[in-house]
């Protein structure tokens, strides 16, 4: 039996459902990440023959990553200072070259 809904035409099975905005994509990403972590832990537990050893291995990876990230973050201000100095030097050289070129052009125009 076909029922008509306000503003809808045709049988229920031919109507398209309206997509509603939801948080489902975010939840799907989180569930997928948790599943991957679980699979990694399971595989490492089998390989190391101990959940404790697998946990220590993962903790080591996390600690190494955290240490490297902190090192990179510590270098960022130094790298920014070096880049700013190089940019300043390049701007000075460019200004000097433009000034020299302008003086040369002025002298040639005077002749």
Which regions have little confidence, pLDDT < 50, spanning 5+ residues? none
> Helix proportion of residues, in percent?
over 70%
Largest sheet: none
Tell me the radius of gyration.
33 Å
Kindly state the number of beta strands: 0
SSE string, helices as H and strands as E: HH
> DSSP strand (E) fraction?
under 5%
Oligomer type: single chain
Shape: flat
What structural class results from the helix and strand content?
A: mainly alpha
The number of helices is 2
Q: How far apart, in Å, are the first and last alpha carbons? A: 99 Å
Can you give the mean pLDDT? 80
Explain the overall architecture.
It contains two helices and no strands. It has 111 residues and is mainly α. It has a domain of 52 residues. 0% of the residues are buried.
Question: What are the salient characteristics of this protein?
Answer:
mainly alpha; 111 residues; 77% helix
Protein topology:
Elements (H helix, E strand, L loop, with lengths): L23 H25 L2 H60 L1
Short description:
By secondary structure, the protein is mainly alpha-helical.
